[in-house]
Amino acid sequence: MTDRCIASRPSVDQVLAIVDFMEKHPALALGQLRGLEGRDESKKLWFQLTRTVNNITGPIRPMKSWIKYWADKKSTVRSKVMSVGGDPNSLCSNVEKKIWDLFLSSDVTKPRNSVKQESHYIEETNFNEDSMDETNVESDPVLTFEEPIADVHERHIVIMEKLLTVMSSQATALAQLGQASAVSSQAMERLAEASHIQARAIDRLATTFESIGAATHQVSNAMVDIDATVKRCYATSPT
Question: What pLDDT, in 10s, does the model give residues 61-89?
């Protein structure tokens, strides 16, 4: 699924979310939801967990993949402890210690077979986790809902969530564009106002120069008149 490859390892936050969810739903974690009502409840919880984990930074996986991951994780923790004689102190990870303390320490004495994939969807297997990694096989029939339906439903959920995210981003971008346009419009209005003020100042300056020119012309005429008068005075003087 795009950049978040299904084959990549879950992030620490995703693993913590799974363990926290299982701590709140121990019956799901221990495979104790049996019978018709139990399987329906199990399905709802796995859908809820899948949606939660896929919304956390890390790979996006279908529900059956997270079911298998949980079964494999418990099997890995159990194998590590049993390989050192049942000493849980050999576990280096706090998450693995928590898984051991919450879900595995009470049944350490029970014999185990190789762990099968913990999924309602894998053909010819039962959903109950105990029936996959213990000798006591559950007699209830396999759940009837099919993998393609579940996968399509999960993909639709993921697509809708991504679509909502994209739409939210687009709305934010449009709001920012509108804000930038408003700022640009205000700047253009201020520039137009400044241009108008400048035009008025130039007009006043032109009027002033015209007034100065007219006054200069009048002074020139007056000087000519004075000169003519003086000349006449000298012309009429007695010899």
Answer: 999 999 999 999 999 999 999 988 888 88
Is 92 within the bounds of a domain? yes
Q: Based on the structure, what is the number of domains in the chain? A: 1
180, part of any domain: no
Nearest 10 degrees: Cα torsion 52, 58, 64, 70: -90
* Positions in the chain short of pLDDT 50: 1, 111-151
pLDDT of residue 222: 82
CA neighbor of 50 nearest in space, from 133, 121, 143, 109: 121
Both tokens of 89, joined, read 């102190």
Domain with 101 in it: 12-145
Q: Would you say residue 39 lies in a domain?
A: yes
183 within some domain: no
**Residues 76, 9 contacting (CB under 8 angstroms):** no
- For residue 134, the cross-strand partners are 112
- Residue 212 CB-half CA count within 13 A: 6
C-alpha distances in Å from residue 91, one per residue of 4, 43, 79, 110: 29, 31, 11, 20
pLDDT at 20 (0 to 100): 95
What is the C-alpha radius of gyration for the chain, rounded to an integer number of angstroms?
44
Contacts of 5 (CB under 8 A, 6+ apart): 59
Q: What pLDDT, on a 0 to 100 scale, did the predictor assign at position 122? A: 37
Quickly count: other Cβ atoms within 10 Å of residue 39's Cβ: 21
